[in-house]
Amino acid sequence: MKTKVQTLKQIIDQEKRERLERLLYDQIRVSGLVLPEKQINGIVPGRKFRWDFGYRFLKILIEVQGGIYMKGKKGPGAHNRAWGIIRDCEKNNLAVLAGWRVLYFDTQSIRTGKALRFLEKMIPAYSPNLLTEETRRT
Questions:
Q1: Is pLDDT above 80 for 77?
Q2: What is the dihedral of CA 121, 123, 125, 129, to 10 degrees?
Q3: Distance, CA of 51 to CA of 61 (rounded, Å)
Q4: What is the end-to-end Cα distance of the chain in Å, rounded?
Q5: Which end of the chain is less enclosed by CB atoms within 10 A, N or C?
Q6: 3-state DSSP: the chain helix, strand, coil percent, rounded to 5?
Q7: For residue 38, what is the enclosing H or E element?
Q8: Residue 53: strand pairing partners
Q9: Residue 136 has pLDDT above 60, yes or no
Q10: For 21-137, where are the E strands, in sequence order?
Q11: Model confidence over 17-28: pLDDT tens digits?
Q12: Residue 102 phi/psi, 5° resolution?
């Protein structure tokens, strides 16, 4: 049974992760790069996997690895526990088999702008006006 303290901690951890995702998204927006789709899914047929961001037309998925240094009363967060790592390996390996590239960014790389600099090298500087809806879906 979960206590109120654990539930509150989970809420705080979720808010921190969402702030980090918003920071990366805002950096991408300000840089002029095409904005990624948020909470992208449907990449692996028959599975309910979700990635933080993605560019369907480039087949690029982005995972924000916030909280990798955090430890709660019962140990590390889900992505740092054995079952979470195993699930993430399967999820990302299946995406790679489907022809996608998966990028990981940690808190420090997002806060220092290193993640954005990497994305600027990786993602062509398309003008959003030049992209059609059909191009975005492929």
A1: no
A2: -170
A3: 7
A4: 45
A5: N
A6: 50, 20, 30
A7: strand 37-41
A8: 38, 62
A9: no
A10: 37-41, 50-55, 60-65, 71-72, 75-76, 101-106
A11: 789 999 999 999
A12: -115, 125
Q: 98: number of CA atoms within 13 Å, CB side?
A: 19
CATH node for 4-137: 3.40.960.10
Alpha helices for 60-104 (secondary structure H): 82-97
Residue with the two structure tokens 């299946």:
94
Work out the burial of residue 55: count CB atoms within 10 Å of its CB; fewer than 13 is exposed, 13-18 middle, 19 or more buried.
buried
One-letter amino acid identity for 122?
M
Per residue in 22-51, pLDDT tens?
999 999 999 989 999 999 989 998 899 999
d(CA 92, CA 116): 21
- Collapsing DSSP states into helix, strand and coil, what is residue 22? helix
* Distance separating alpha carbons of residues 67 and 28, to the nearest angstrom: 21
User: How do residues 83-108 score in pLDDT, each as one tens digit?
Assistant: 778 888 999 999 999 999 999 999 99
User: What tokens appear for 14 in the block?
Assistant: 């979720």
